[in-house]
Amino acid sequence: MDNLRIEKTWSDNDFFEINIKGSNEFITCEQNIYVAFESISTICTKLFEYVNQPNKALYFESGDKTGAYTPAISVNILPAELTGTILIELDMEIEDNDERRHRAVFYVKTDKFNLKSFSEKLEKYILKDTEIGFSSELNSVF
């Protein structure tokens, strides 16, 4: 089943380590990234804007996809289809080599209701709650 989970695994005053796990019927991919409080706040705001206007695409990324830096991920949420289906394209680095050449790019399907709920949980459990281990899941439990 298509799903996306973001879990806070470490936090500082204004910096987080999060574990991102995406899946569809063909693949499951997992990646840890570091992200600033401000970036998560911006992502939450953009997600809420998208839920209110799902006819516009939304793109954000964390990290640089080239060079020997921290792992990079990008998320491209395509405009909602007339059927209400929303496609989220994940581009995740696979950390199996030093040259950072391997990436997995795949779609996760959802709908407006689940994306809104995911955004609310992301804001509440990842951004505002100080505890680690909290997560937000898009469609179901892994």
- Percentage of residues in strands: 35-45%
Q: Give helix and strand order, one letter per element, not per position.
A: EEEHEEEEHE
Average pLDDT figure? 86
How many strand units? Answer: 8
- Count of DSSP H/I helices: 2
Taken from the alpha-carbon principal axes, the silhouette is globular
Distance between the termini: 9 Å
Strands across the major sheet, in which order? 3-2-1-8
Low-confidence stretches: none
Please identify the structural class as seen in this structure: alpha+beta
Helix content: 10-25%
Rg for CA atoms: 14 Å
Q: Mind describing the biggest β-sheet?
A: 4 strands, antiparallel
What key phrases describe this protein's structure?
alpha+beta; 4-stranded antiparallel β-sheet; 2 helices; 142 residues
Please outline the helices and strands:
Blueprint: E1 3-11, E2 15-23, E3 28-36, H1 37-52, E4 58-62, E5 73-77, E6 85-93, E7 103-111, H2 112-128, E8 135-137
Antiparallel strand pairs: 1-2, 1-8, 2-3, 4-5, 5-6, 6-7
Helix pairs in contact: 1-2
